Amino acid sequence: MISWRKHYKTVLIAVGLLLSTSASVHAQTGDPSNGEKLFKANACNSCHALDKQVVGPALGGIVAKVKTDANVGPDWLHKWIKNNKELRASGDKYANEIFEQFNKTEMPAFANLSDKDIDDILAYTTNPPAAPAADAASADGAGGTDMNSVAALEAAKNNEAASKIIITSLVVIAGLLFWLLLKLRTLVNLQKSQELNAKDSAKAFSFAEFYDKYRMVGTGILSVLALIAFYGVWNWLMWIGVYKGYKPEQPIYFSHRIHAGVNKIDCQLCHSSAKYGKVSEIPSLNVCMNCHKMIPEYKGKYLEPGKDKAFYDGEIQKIYEHVGWDKEKMAYTGKTSPVQWTRIHNMPDFVYFNHAQHVVAGEHAIIDGFNKKHPKKDDQIDVVCKACHGKIDTMNVVQMANDFTMGWCIECHRTTEIDMKNGYNKTYFKNLHEKLKKQFGSGAKITVAAIGGLECGKCHY
């Protein structure tokens, strides 16, 4: 009994030390590397950063911060992460203060995370593993360099070949001009002397006699030149208003390759009116802000040749300036300004084109028809938009991928077969197939042209 009392204080001190350090041990026993993976896998980085406030608070050193602010430990963070709504409903004062402080933005519950998972995440926020600068740089560069090296090399070869052709043509033209100058100089020298010696007399001749002798040849050459000139003028007239390959610079740089290609964002998420409306409108900047409220900087690995992270960050900042967004305060300032986009695709006023009719009713027919015309796998499409606009998910700068002429549209209507798997079409065009067989033979197919796709009033009214 005396022995126990002797060591009583020592035992209490040991227990006290164990309890006081349990919170820090609880937070520090996690694996920071695994915590980083969990942090990204659960999209925590979409609302939080370690070094600054995004949608939620900065999480660097969060274990120490909550201890200082409210004298709570990792157990409180476990409850908050698993179900912050339940924690607030229990009347927890600190939980409700945080909820009010961050504009009542409710954090999703992560009941799927185990205690060990949360310990790993907290360990990551306390002691994040440092990524080697060289490795990070090479990783960022890999996405851009590897994906673009082949295309860049091919473009360089094409430019070199084109330059050689131009230089060769200029040399030939210069040679012809030099030869003509020599002949003219000879004729001028002959005209200077009134008396011609025997040698010069042999060179001199009458142009009239020469033309009379070779009149048929001259007429033929002039006719050919006239036909070439006429064809050139006709071809020029036919290409008025055709801007295939047109890709103007925009006031805010937007890479479809990054958004639709690398990040797999569906076309209709931004161009929602293309599916249900006549016109595919340009998305408002509010659509951009749905994501860029939480994405103030570019963290992707893909980089275009000649562009770096700072360039992309600057373009995101332009969005903030136009919509009046303060990324530090996470609030709108009310100062806005419109963006003067340069239009690329523009149908003439006398042409009627309905996006919804093609995107909804003609989706499967257009995709199937396009892929039949392009049997190579690399040329085929998976989204109806690409049939007209090209593989826009590979374009850094959007350009007109097709002619968009009347002949181009008519050719599509003549070759695209109607989707007879569609229940409406199957019933509505039940007897049309038999009629076409009698009119055009057994191989006749129900195309857009067969159901009135070539009628003038369909597009011109």
UniProtKB/TrEMBL annotation:
Keywords: Heme, Iron, Membrane, Metal-binding, Signal, Transmembrane, Transmembrane helix. CDD domains: Cytochrom_C3. GO terms for molecular function: electron transfer activity; heme binding; metal ion binding. It holds the Pfam family Cytochrom_C. The keyword Transmembrane helix applies. The keyword Transmembrane applies. The chain crosses the membrane at residues 165-182, 221-242. Residues 30-129 form the Cytochrome c domain. It comes from the Bacteria. Residues 1-27 form the signal peptide. PANTHER family: CYTOCHROME C7-LIKE DOMAIN-CONTAINING PROTEIN, LIPOPROTEIN CYTOCHROME C. This is Cytochrome c2. It comes from Halpernia frigidisoli. The lineage of its organism: Bacteria, Pseudomonadati, Bacteroidota, Flavobacteriia, Flavobacteriales.
